[in-house]
Design goal:
eight-stranded parallel beta sheet, two-stranded antiparallel sheet
Length: about 280
């Protein structure tokens, strides 16, 4: 089901611009995203999941704003940086993997297609293999996103081809409309479907982030929170910051006997290169 011990606490601050516009005081500029990541780091986050956006929080194929975001974060903390290869299905494989050209250490890898809200999130076998091979070539750790259990089998095909090194890292995305519901039974099923010794975290959508994170901590997995998943601290109460959401998970983790790992410990757990003087060795 996963390992216990030090907790990997991921912050996902990149709320889509269409949602940010409905909320008050959300800054989606590079400076705003970086500020939220650093505040979340100070609250106990040790990994940040980031999207390639322009200065207005829109998907872009221009890396300037993303690279500025990373630089601002790295100037202030040594949090582990994860880039997304998700986003709009209409983009090419190369466009969706632009984050791999930057200084990220981990990258999301969607291992299958799935219904997503009112549409279809398309990730073809050729695209998946392309992204996995690029991550392998660039020594970036894949974080395999699992929306349905068949995606585990797809990921293990990549492992058999030598494209997923141990320890393997998975994120269960539960509660997305059109995909696997966010239930304890589904989380337990997925945690028992991945190879022994794998590391897994959970991203609860549709307001299920807190319950799924608490269950993950209890089952030996790892939590994730942030405006991308749910910008509300309680129903109808907007969170003051991503840090407020992270602080709650850190306190719950400590209550359950799991102390947040340091970024250096996370790198060791994931088999990443250590950082020195603000850079990955």
């Amino acid at each position: 089901m996963g390992t216990t011990g030090g907790l990997i606490v991921t912050v996902a601050p990149c709320i889509p611009s269409r949602m940010a516009g409905k909320l008050g005081g959300v800054d989606v500029s590079p400076e705003g995203i970086a500020r939220e990541v650093v505040r979340a780091y100070n609250a106990g986050a040790n990994m940040a999941h980031l999207h390639v956006w322009d200065g207005r929080g829109e998907p872009t194929t221009d890396l300037a704003a993303f690279e500025r975001t990373l630089a601002l974060i790295q100037e202030q903390c040594d949090i582990v940086l994860e880039g997304s290869t998700g986003g709009v299905s209409q983009l090419s494989s190369e466009q969706r993997s632009l984050s791999l050209l930057t200084g990220i250490e981990v990258a999301s890898l969607n291992s299958g297609s799935v219904n997503y809200d009112g549409g279809v999130y398309v990730n073809s076998p050729d695209e998946i293999r392309y992204w996995a091979a690029e991550m392998k070539r660039r020594e970036i750790k894949p974080n395999v996103a699992i929306f349905e259990v068949g995606m585990v089998a797809n990921a293990m095909e990549l492992a058999d081809e030598g494209l997923l090194d141990s320890p393997r890292l998975f994120t269960f995305v539960l509660g997305q409309r059109g995909a696997m519901p966010a239930t304890p039974k589904n989380m337990l099923f997925l945690s028992e479907s991945i190879p022994e010794g794998s590391i897994w975290t959970v991203a609860g959508h549709g307001g299920h982030d807190l319950v799924m994170s608490v269950l993950a901590i209890s089952l030996g997995g790892h939590p994730r929170a942030g405006f991308e998943d749910n910008p509300f601290y309680r129903q109808d109460q907007q969170a003051e910051s991503n840090a407020q959401l992270i602080d709650r998970l850190v306190q719950l983790g400590r209550t359950l006997g799991r102390e947040p790992a340091t970024p250096a410990e996370v790198r060791s757990m994931l088999g990443l290169k250590p950082r020195r003087d603000g850079r990955v060795d």
